[in-house]
Amino acid sequence: MARAEGKTIVFFPEGAFGPTNNCIGIGEVLKRRGHRVVFVIEESFAGTLEEKGFEERLMRLAPPPDVPEEPGQFWKDFIRETAPVFRKSTFDQLGEFMAPTWEALLDGARYVDERLVEIFDELQPDAIVEDNVCAFPAIPASGRPWVRIVSCNPLELKDPALPPTFSGYPTGNRSGWEEFRTRYRELHEPLQQEFSEFCVERGAPSLPEGEFIHESPFLNLYLYPPEADYERSRPLGERWKQLGSCVREQNGFEGRPAGSGPLLYFSLGSLGSADVGLMQKLIDTLGATEYSVIVSLGPQHEELRLAPNMSGAEFLPQPAILPEVDLVITHGGNNTVTESLHFGKPMVVLPLFWDQHDNAQRMDELGLGRRLDTYGHEPVELVDAIESLLADSELPRRLSAISARLEADPGTAKAADLIERLI
Predict the structure, then answer these.
(1) Is the dihedral of CA 28, 32, 37, 43 positive or negative?
(2) What pLDDT is stored for residue 15 in this prediction?
(3) What separation in angstroms does the CA of 52 have from each of 31, 49, 156?
């Protein structure tokens, strides 16, 4: 098949580092192939994509603040204010975190829709690629080919034979599934119906029942290694393609901390790391061990105290670090989980919100990691989890096989091929 050349492809990721980094990896491949790649990003991210050689178009999801913002500041503030809810069960989080989060997401989609129309009219893209959890009506209403990327746990693509999305419930035990689904519907149905009407008003199709986003009639991509995926009772359909991983290129990392023990990487993501109390508790636990630890400090880095066996910074080149470490301690964000599997690393998972609970449960039940109660675990439990994973003589073989297959079939190139085939 002849390859399309010189097309304009617009990427519109959610205003967080995970989805943005996924799109960067794919965009880099397309740019090398001669395409014009433009990123639609929040104003707080201005300049970050230009530094990587992409064009930018800026937008806002809410009225401008009185003071300058850091990248993704809206969601950092939102998470910080709602952090006490993360100590509660996933069932309790439905009303106290999930519903307010969906409401904030939908408000943002309403606010930005006119600006998106302006951007698409200006750029006249050959394809639009979005990585979001809620619909933005301007995309399907544009009449242009568009691609949906799902960079969350695959339970977001619902199946009656699988646990409820966001529950963190095990696949082998159905207790509580219906209660969770019923409560989710009760809380979210009015929001969903109102937003579906807005989509129609803005020229887009109505939303599927129970969903906040459309399936693309052109191409849909979801990000999860096949070895960790779920067995479905309902096939996703021919317009769905799986990316096992989607790892962007980054330069090598220098700055290994002192210590002769196994090397660990600790990150709660750009949002989870805003909880200073939790971060310091985990740093203190790891600081009392003989492990060497690289810490992704996040936005509150100035308030955190590292131990002598540690090095860290506000931002770290995660894909460059992961190949060098022996184990990953993570919040269970989809990017970190899939990147850890890409490089064959076991995980201790400390979930906070959204699909992190589902990822934590999946890694635990597959034996690829250990799930802990993020706020309720004792320090000795974290150390025991690390030691048990590092002592598992069979685990390196399993993870190496997963890694070899993922590295042989890079999701960035596969996604670029599919997008080119579409346009």
Answers:
(1) positive
(2) 80
(3) 11, 5, 30
The one-letter code for the residue type at 75 is: W
pLDDT given for residue 201 in this prediction? 98
Residue with tokens 């250990």: 370
User: Tokens 């990003």 identify what position?
Assistant: 41
Predicted local distance difference test score (pLDDT) of residue 245? 92
The token duo for 303 is 């308030």
Q: What is the C-alpha to C-alpha distance for residues 310 and 314, in angstroms, rounded to an integer?
A: 14
Yes or no: say if 101 and 75 are a contact pair by the CB < 8 Å rule. Answer: no
CA distances, 218 to each of 145, 328, 385 (Å): 6, 36, 43
- What CA dihedral angle connects 108, 109, 112 and 113, to 10 degrees? -160
Distance CA 188, CA 211 (A): 9
Tokens of 343: 């490089």
- Name the E strands within 100-239: 127-131, 146-150, 219-223
**Residue 1 confidence (pLDDT):** 42
DSSP conformational letter for 349:
E
Task: Say which residues have a Cβ less than 8 Å from residue 62's Cβ, sequence separation at least 6.
Answer: 74, 107, 108, 111
Copy the structure tokens of residue 87. Answer: 């100590």
pTM for this model (two decimals): 0.93
Q: For residue 169, how far is the Cα from the chain centroid?
A: 19
Residue ranges, the chain, pLDDT below 70: 1-5, 69-76, 78-80
Contacts of residue 201, defined as CB under 8 A and 6 or more positions apart, other chains included, come to none
Say what the pLDDT of residue 74 is. 64
Q: Which helix (H) or strand (E) holds 316?
A: none
Rounded to an integer, what distance in angstroms lies between the CA atom of residue 251 and that of residue 317? 8
Q: How far apart are CA 55 and CA 344, in angstroms?
A: 34
Residue 94 DSSP one-character state: I
Can you tell me the distance from the alpha carbon of 145 to that of 126, in angstroms, rounded to the nearest whole number? 7
Give the 3-state secondary structure of residue 359.
helix
How far, in Å, are 116, 125, 137 from residue 110 at the CA level?
A: 10, 22, 9
- Helix-strand-coil percent breakdown of the chain, rounded to 5? 45, 15, 40
DSSP state of 3: P
